Protein 1
Amino acid sequence: MTQKLDKTSFSKLLSFVLRHDPGSIGLTLDRGGWADVDDLLDKAGHQITRSELETVVQTSDKQRFALSPDGRRIRANQGHSIDVDLGLLAACPPDVLFHGTVQKFLSAILEHELTPQARHHVHLSPDTATAQSVGARRGTPIVLRINAKAMHEAGYLFYRSQNGVWLTDHVPASFLMPS
Ligand code: HQG
C-alpha cells in the first residue's frame, strides 16, 4: 500500500527534490528547473495526489513552488543549490532590503560580506518581519539592513523571485547600514 505524506512533509520533500537533489528520486529537471508533474508524482511513489499537490503549491506560506500555466510542470521559485536558470530579469530593488541571520555568522559577514553559502544567491527580504522569521530558523534573529539603492547605483544586479524574495550575488559589508 502506498504510504501517504502530510502536506508539510510533502512540501519539504518537494523543496529538497526541486531545489537540491532531483536525482534522489530519479527525477530530471529542465534548464529552467521545471519537472513534469506526472513524473514527479510517480517518482515520489504516489504519496500525494495531483489535487493535493496543487493545494500544497497554492497554500505554501512562502509560495515556494510554481506550476506552469498548463499545470503540467512544477518548479521551486527560488532557493536552489543545483544549477538551474530561472530566467529572472534584473530589477530595481527597494532602497533598503533586509537579511535575517544569527550571531554566530555576524563576524564573518561584517569582516567580509554576505555570501550565498550553498544557494545561488544571497536571499534578501523586503521587510524586517520576514527577515526576522528567516533568521529565527537558526536561533535569536539578527536583522541586517542593506543599502540596496547604493548597491544598485554601483552596478550590483538584483532579481526578484516569483515569491517576492530579492536575490543578489553577494553583499559587501560596506553596504550594510547601521540598524
Ligand atoms: C549566512 C528559507 C558565514 C546567512 C528562508 C544565513 C529564506 C554567512 C546562512 C531562504 C555568510 C545561509 C534563504 C558569511 C551569509 N559567513 N555565514 N560570509 N554570509 N551567511 O539558508 O538567507 O523556507 O542558505 O546569514 O526563509 O538563511 O527554504 O540562507 O544565515 O527565504 O523556502 O549563511 O530559505 O526559505 O543560510 O535563507 P541559507 P537564508 P525556505
Protein 2
Amino acid sequence: MTESELTPATFSVDDKTLEFPRVKATEGNDGVAINTLLKDTGLVTLDTGFVNTASCESKITYIDGGEGILRYRGYPIEELANNSRFLEVAYLLIYGDLPDMETYAAVVRRIKRHRLLHEDFKAFFTAFPSNGHPMAILQAGISGLATYYQHTLDPKDKYQIELATVLLMAKVPTMISYISRRAQGLPLMYPDSSLQYIEDFIRMTFGMPYANHDVDPILTDALNKLLILHADHEQNCSTSTVRMVGSSEANIYASVAAGVGALSGPLHGGANEAVLRMLTEIQESDMSVQDFVTKVKNKEDGVRLMGFGHRVYKSYDPRASIAKQSAHDVLEKLGKSNEQLDIAMELEEIALQDDYFIERNLYPNVDFYTGLIYKAMGFPEEMFTPLFALGRLPGWIAQYREMIEDPATKIGRPRQVYTGATERHWIPRSER
Ligand code: ACO
C-alpha cells in the first residue's frame, strides 16, 4: 500500500482519537486506510453499496464522475474509441501500454490460434433450453472452460494466467456466437482464421455455412467502438465481483463467470436490453414521452428511466456521448428507421431539463444508446448484454490479474453490523 507523507486523517470516537494514514492517488480521491479501526475501537464501518469505500488500489482505469472523464491507463476514452482496435485496447488494459506493430501482430496471431471451442461444447449448449437467457448460458459456458483447460487454473502461475487470458479472449466471442445461433436454430459456425477478430465474430453470428458472408465495415467499426467503450470501468459491480471471487484464489474462469452473472442485472449491464424494452413500450403504447417521464418521476410501479443515472458520473457519461453519435452514424449509414432513436432523444431532452433529473444528477449512461445500435446491426435484444460482456472481458481479466499480483490483496471478506435476534433457546415444535 502506498501510504503517503500526507497528514494522517484523525477520527475521534468516545475518548479516543485515532490517526489513519492517507493513501495518495495520482488523480482523484485520496484514500484513508482504516484497516486498524476494528482492532483499535471495536467498530466497523458501514457503507451500504460501497458508496464511499475503495476496495483496492488500481492503475488500470480512471474516472472523474464530476467532469465526465474516463481514461484507460491514462488514455482518454475518446482517443481510444476513435483510433484503436479492440484487441489493442485489450492489450493496453491487461499489460499497461499500447502494443507496437510487432507485439500487436503477435497478440492477434495468438488469439486467432485459439478461437475454436472444444467440440463437446456443442453438446454442452444443447443442455439448456434454446430460449434460455444468453447471459445464463454464457456464465455457465465460461465457468465450464475451467473443466476443459485444467492446466490453466492456478492464479499464482504466470504461464497459466497468460494462457488463460488468451483462451478467454479467443473463445468467448465464439461462445457468444454459438449461443446466439442456437437460440435461432441456426447451424453453428467455426471461426475463420483469415478474418479479423470482430469481423469473424460478426460472420459467425450472422453468416451461413453455404455462402460467403461479406461483413459490412460499418458494422465492424461500430462494434469495435462499442467494445472499446465497454472494455473497463474500474470497480463497478461486475468487476468487483470478479475481484471478490478471485480473492479466494478461485480460477479466472470462475471469477469472470461470476462477473457475467453480476453484469446480467438490469441495474448494470442488463440495462441495455431494458432500454430497448422501454423504448418499444413507449412506442407501442398511447403514452407520450412526457407521460412516461412523469410516471418515472412519480416512481409508479418502481419504474426508472433505464439507461439513466450512474453511481460515479454526476455529469454526462463520456461513453454515452460517443454511443449517441455512433447511433446517429450507424442508423444513417444503414438507412434504418429512426423512430426509437427519436424517442430516446426526446426522453433525454425532457429529462435533462426536468428538476427531478437535474437535482439527482441523472444523465444518460453508456446503455442508453447502445441497444439502438445493436438492434440496427441485427442483434436480437437478448444478445445486447452478452455483447457488453464481450467488451468488458479484457477489463475483468486485467483487474483479476492486477488483484492476484498485488501483495496487499487479501481474501475479500466484509464485516456486517448484526441487527438480528439476540440469543434465544430452542423449544419443541408443539410448544411454539
Ligand atoms: N430513473 C429515475 N430515477 C432514478 C434513476 C433512474 N434511472 N436512477 C436513480 N434515480 C433516483 C433514485 O430513485 C433516487 O431518488 P430518491 O433520492 O428520490 O430516492 C436517486 O435518483 C438516487 O438513486 P440511487 O438508486 O440511490 O443511485 P445509485 O447510485 O445507487 O444507482 C444506478 C445507480 C443503479 C445506475 C441507477 O441510477 C439506476 O437504477 N439507473 C437505471 C439502470 C441503468 O441504467 N443502469 C446502468 C448503469 S451503467 C452500467 O452499469 C453500465
